[in-house]
Please model this.
Amino acid sequence: MHFTSETTANGVVERRFTHADVPGVLWTAPGDPSARPLVLLAHGGGQHKTAPGIAGRAHRFVAAGFAAAALDAPGHGERPRTEREERVSAEIRSLVAAGEPAVDYVARYHAEVASQSVKEWTSTVDELWTAGIGTDRPVGFFGISMGTGLGVPLVAAEPRIAAAVFGLAGNEGLADAAGRVRVPIEFLLQWDDEMVPRDSALALFDAFGSAEKSLHANAGPHAGVPRFEVDSAVRFFARHLLA
Model:
């Protein structure tokens, strides 16, 4: 892991890094971050590791006693975008604009990206622990929309993750992995989601094998998750990672 830059703003240290050619960013409080549990932040489709929503959540988590890290998913942010990825993105936008179902198409794309990104996240946690970031502490995961498409297989396979926030995703392609998730989860559902059918999102929530799982349903479209859900996520991770 190679750290390439460091800046500090509003009491939060932001360090950019690359690991195995994957660009990432780490947010911590000034001083020794070793005692702070790590929360992994996965961005949505078409976004990147420092998108406003990701950076805003990271600052909130740092203020609450965590370290946070994000990676650019394959084909996003600073990573090269293939011709296929450009075509898939255009086709998804076209389907949504036409009001046609895109959930199966999106699920297949997320599965392709997850097959690569799960290994990248696991390796990144290895390196961050080696660097003394949250070493031997429980890890949290926050990822909605595409972040859930990548995160459910990751949480199912990564025993260091002890709690997760998912949402804005359907059951297609994720049911088997969701059944292997046993950690506590919060799941965000937008009742008027134009991209994810409500029945599919509810089926995914039902598929999780977690003994503790909480469904947070709010009125509004896919991109309309209320800001107070970040407050809930902070409390959720505090219960499960800081206790």
Remarks:
- DSSP finds seven helices and nine strands in the chain.
- Residues 103-130 form the longest helix (28 residues).
- The two ends are 29 Å apart (CA to CA).
- The CA atoms of residues 188 and 229 lie 8 Å apart.
